[in-house]
Amino acid sequence: MKNGSHPSPPEFFPTQYWHTLDDGRIQCDVCPRACKLREGQQGLCFVRARHQDQIVLTSYGRSSGFCIDPIEKKPLNHFLPGTPVLSFGTAGCNLACKFCQNWDMSKSREMDTLADQAMPEQLAQAALETGCRSMAFTYNDPVIFLEYARDVALAGHEKGIRSVAVSAGYICEEPREAFFEFIDAANIDLKAFSESFYKKICGGALQPVLETLQYLKHETDVWFELTTLLIPGENDSDNELHEMTEWIVEHLGVDVPIHFTAFHPDWKMLNHSHTPADTLTRARGIALSKGIRYAYTGNVHDSRGGSTWCHKCGHILIERDWYQLGAWNLNSGCCNHCGESVGGVFESKAGVWGSKRIPVRMNP
Question: In terms of pTM, does the model score above 0.90?
Answer without folding.
Answer: yes
